Amino acid sequence: MSHTEALSRYIGHFVDQLFKSGVRDVVISPGSRSTPLSLAFAEYDRFQITVDIDERSASYFALGIVKQTNNPVVLVCSSGTAVANYFPAIIEAYQARVPLIVLTADRPHELRSVGAPQAIDQIKIFGDYVKSFHEMAMPEMNENMLQYARNHADRAVRTSLYQVKGPVHLNFPFREPLIPDFRLEGVWGDDTAYVQHFQSDETRLSPQVLANIEQQLQNKKRGVIVCGPHDYPALGAAILSLAKKWQLPVLADPLSSMRVVADEGVIVETYDSILKSKQVRSQINIDFIIRFGAMPVSKPVLQLLQENEIEQFIIDEDVTFRNPAIKQAHYMYGKPTNIANQLADLSLTFDEDWLATWQQMNHAAKAVLNREQQVLTEGLAVRGIQHAIPDESTLFVGNSMPIRDVDTFWLATAKKITIHANRGANGIDGIISTALGMAKNGNHVTLLIGDISFLHSMNGLLLTKNYPLNVTIVLINNQGGGIFSFLPQAKEDNPHYEMLFGTPQSISFEKVAVLYDFPYTAVKEWSTYLDALKASYEKKGVSLIEVQTDRQENVEWHQQNWQEIEQSVLAILR
Prior knowledge:
Its EC number is 2.2.1.9. By secondary structure, this protein is an alpha/beta fold. It has 22 helices and 18 strands.
């Protein structure tokens, strides 16, 4: 049995099983040692393949595909530092529960730690940021080894998806020659050669647990339901039914899918602005919180929990401890949608005026946030997107100030817009690439991003030259790290502030657009901005709209809004 035949059948069976286990997208970064994997995916001819020369951009692009399709995506790279460049995206995938299947090629064992080129220690290189790691055996031809290859292909997919989603890493040592022979008969196996799983998603709370919860809540009067970021398609409707049954407000994070509603009666989308005030947080007197999903973007929600003794119930799919307030909490484990439906069946009643109070506060905050403005600000950039964005499209939001402005200014709408962000580790890496990955299936994506985040991940734009992606990029250029202007660092008389935090830059973004051959528009007025958005949505491809703002003016404008909201809310609470 030749080395080439063993390599071909081993990799062929592995790749075939990945397809049969449900993988459809593969993102490949070219390299020599990964040749067997790359050629096998291409020759199989049933995968959607994207090639990206930059592993960091490639990994975030894959992450974006998963966010759009909710299906695992395979990453393939060569050995050495190529592997290390995946690390930031893998951390994000682990923290955000995104199923990535990472296939790294490696030198065979005899070429490790002997000074061979492109050889680093890849064993468990990602540490605890993957759900599992496996060093694949060297390719062999016997039936047990072919089944072994299949088993680990399927196991990687299942592990990435259950119980809580996340990345999986398989490391493949390959000896030369590296070119498989796909002309061999049965190289992919046959139609009967695959692994199947039959799994139920009906995890629920027991009657005894429900009785205990009912007993704990029966003397409570003023509760709120918090819905943070999640990826359960039916959860929003289940929470809405629960809130209406219990007549409780829902504090709806912009990544929760719950601001896309026809009935706004229980939805409170301005809760971040309402709770900005410490005085409001101390007077609002919440008895209990039931939280679905991850912690919200909103820092005031965290402060509310830290500053007050509020009984909280945290719902999650598996045994986890997403409780950064470090306060006592009760945990419910199971499918969140099922738990929401079960809770709605409990016979509980609460303060009849409580929901009305939240509706009044929400209405007062929206009156401030919705009023007409003369100057195009960063907050109004969000309102402009909400006004112009096409129905059934996607908004991807950068971290730092953009996601916070979306939290504040994206109000409940009947438009079916999905909103996403990389909130696992909250970093600014790979924002452009993730947004482009979300556009991979032809969907039009609007990317709202700051200038520093844009520069940090600009290399990802290379894929716009090679693939038909429809993306409107709204770039907020405030000449640096605008979010630091809201933090204590900016309030101190610190001569090093601009160098260390403001980080001003003088890049011409118009020239960036020229480099990558897409249209560019700079806007400073509301009407011009809306026209630019409309024009970008009417055509295919990528377009860049630069909104130029002033950091200090932006801080003062936000603070004025929050002060007016605070005054209105305190008047209601009195």
